[in-house]
Design brief:
The chain is of the alpha+beta class and about 140 residues long. Helix content is about 30%, strand content about 25%. It is rod-shaped and about 110 Å long.
């Protein structure tokens, strides 16, 4: 004669989690989990820091940057003050190169355009104080 099953819930499997316990969600593909967005101001700080590193030892105010980001493409504008006389084109090229490398490395963005605005030149004469005591007569 077959045995009758007692009324109530079926016996639990020892591998089942206890009632009320959280279960791990099913694995979700990386592309379906969401996205990471880096704010324009963060990319601008990366660019300004890169310019500051490249111009270390230069007199004047520290560089500042503004950035426009569209998808994963950043267009950067950096304002700098440079010493004069010096090779301005070479300094701008070095700043441009470092900004591109840093933004690509840290923010994983393409940087097709970096505009460098030379806002002020600092002469070696004004830095050393030569000519400051001249009086107009």
């Amino acid at each position: 004669m077959p045995q009758a099953t007692p009324p109530g819930p079926p016996p639990s499997d020892p591998t089942d989690p206890p009632p009320g316990a959280r279960t791990a969600p099913a694995a979700v593909a990386a592309a379906d989990r969401g996205s990471t967005r880096i704010a324009d101001r963060v990319v601008a700080k990366i660019a300004a820091q890169a310019a500051r590193e490249e111009l270390a030892g230069s007199s004047g105010a520290p560089p500042h940057a503004t950035v426009t980001v569209h998808h994963d493409i950043a267009r950067v504008r950096v304002g700098v003050e440079l010493d004069y006389p010096s090779d301005l084109a070479a300094q701008c090229a070095a700043v441009r190169s470092r900004v591109v490398r840093r933004v690509e490395e840290y923010a994983n963005m393409s940087v097709p355009e970096v505009d460098i605005n030379i806002e002020q030149l600092h002469s070696t004469h004004t830095r050393t104080g030569v000519g400051r005591d001249r009086q107009l007569r």
